[in-house]
Amino acid sequence: MIPTNPQQPVDITFRQPAQPRVPAQQGVLEERWLHKIFLFTHIPATWGAERLALLLLAGGFLTWIAWLPVGSAGVAAGLYLLFAGSDWALLSWLPRSGRSFGPVGPQLLVQTMPRLAAAGLSAILAWLFDSVSGGLLLLTLLQLFGSGVYLWGMLVEPFALGLGGQTVQPAAWNGRAARPFRLLHLSDLHVERLTRREAKLLDLIDQARPDLIVFTGDFLNLSYVEDPTARDEVRRVLGQLRAPYGVFATLGSPPVDLRHVAPSLLADFDIRLLRDEVAVVNLPDGRKLSLIGMDCEHDLVSDESALQQLLAVTPADSARVLLYHSPELMPVARTLPLDLYLCGHTHGGQIRLPGYGAILTSSVTGKRYEAGRYDEQGTTLYVSRGIGLEGLSAPRMRLLCPPEIVLWELGHG
Q1: Which of 255, 343, 328 is nearest to 298 (CA)?
Q2: 3-state secondary structure string across 154-221
Q3: Sign of CA dihedral 96, 101, 102, 108
Q4: Are the CB atoms for 322 and 294 separated by under 8 Å?
Q5: Helix or strand holding residue 81 (H, E)
Q6: What does the alpha-carbon distance between residue 59 and residue 84 come to, in Å, rounded to a whole number?
Q7: Radius of gyration of the chain from Cα atoms?
Q8: Which of 15, 17, 47, 211 could form a disulfide with 105 if both were Cys (CB 3.0 to 4.6 A apart)?
């Protein structure tokens, strides 16, 4: 049996590959189109109130132009400005409420685009059906719906952190009757400042009572990677992570987990950062669990070479769990002797549509592995929806995609 609080010292050994990985190409993620869009739409981060007002006035002018052929252009523009102004007020209030942080400008720019689309669509339909009143009613309803979505997405769902449960039977443990080993998976903390989400996280961890905790990267919010207060805040969370068989972590995306910053976030804590390293946990009942932890460089040639090197030093008679930030290695991982592959990175898309799922995932695998569990060729992949929010101009909200942590039971009772 596995003791919940082992009295004897935990037997863990660490193995490094015989050869280093293929050198990674730098800036791979930064060259992808989605990251470039994040950077471009983040330009208004430094804008003051005057420029933001001009941004909304420009939106009002575009709405007025769109409605000129229909009539009541001034009313339509006024409706747009009313609802866009409410977005500005909400975004300005969020930091003061302690719910979400960061500059207003990028979010206001991103959120006003659907409002402009609604203004244009309602103008087209009003013209097609020759009904100004019907068009204005549609415009009002669409803008009200947008406000409802924004309120839910920013005030409710980001804090609806849940604890999920999954099971998997490692091939090397077949026929070994014992209490399942409880492994808790966390990913994408993305701390800006501490909120009630992080407090709930610690409560859920206490409730889960895991034997071991793993964290698959992205400690800080992308807008706060160099912020000393954010670093102190994330350390307040990490310093409270404990489990009988230890806490293990890997680094996430290079722009988020800056290689000169992220390791220091774990300094002085009982958290082992696995950087292209295998941790072999020898359980008292004779079973072995290998945690294969890798840096995520998003250079698939380099990362695949690291995985192959690590598997070469992983005990064949152990359960094998790959800890790698992104699902991008699954096309290769499913052909290898891996029982479980835990990752995050996609956040499940953060914004999901009914019947369609994630709109964007920021992964080269796109929607193929967007969120949740995938069982392929003997390997189980789980893509966590993560805990926090990305940063920069990525939506400061979640929609049909609540944050999560997942408790895995390895082996059958």
Answers
A1: 328
A2: HHCHHHCCEEEEEEECCHHHCCCCCCCEEEEEECCCCECCCCHHHHHHHHHHHHHCCCEEEECCCCEC
A3: negative
A4: yes
A5: helix 73-97
A6: 9
A7: 24
A8: 47
Largest Cα–Cα separation, the chain:
80
Q: CA 380, CA 197: separation in Å to the nearest integer? A: 28
For 323, counting Cβ atoms within 10 Å of its Cβ (0-12 exposed, 13-18 middle, 19+ buried), the class is buried
Distance of CA 179 to the CA centre of its chain: 31
Residues in the chain: 413
- What H or E segment, with its residue span, contains residue 341? strand 340-343
Contact 192, 396 (CB under 8 A): no
Phi, psi of 392, deg, nearest 5:
50, -135
Amino acid at 390: E
Q: Residue 406: phi, psi to the nearest 5?
A: -130, 130
Q: Tell me the backbone φ, ψ of residue 397, rounded to 5 degrees.
A: -160, 165
Half-sphere exposure of 267 (CA within 13 A, CB side): 8
Distance of alpha carbon 56 from the chain centroid: 30
Q: Which of 170, 172, 185 is nearest to 411 (CA)?
A: 170
Distance (Å, whole) CA 343 – CA 40: 27
| CA dist., res. 208 & res. 192, Å (int) | 25
Contact 142, 120 (CB under 8 A): no
Asked if 170 contacts 113 with a C-beta cutoff of 8 angstroms, the reply is no
Task: Look up the pTM and report it.
Answer: 0.95
The whole-number mean pLDDT for each consecutive block of 10 residues of the chain, a chain of 413 residues, reads 57 95 92 88 95 98 97 97 98 95 94 97 96 97 98 98 97 84 98 96 98 98 94 97 97 96 95 98 95 97 97 97 98 97 97 95 94 98 97 92 98 70
What whole-number distance in Å separates Cα of residue 167 and Cα of residue 4? Answer: 18
Helical segments of 156-241, H only = 196-208, 228-238
Q: How far apart are CA 406 and CA 382, in angstroms?
A: 9
Q: Would you give the distance in Å from CA 136 to the centre of its chain?
A: 38
Tell me which residue of 350, 340, 319, 384 sits closest to 149, measured CA to CA. 350
Q: What is the structure's pLDDT at 175? A: 72
The sheet with strand 11-15 has its strands ordered as: 11-15, 277-282, 288-293, 319-323, 340-343, 379-383, 372-376
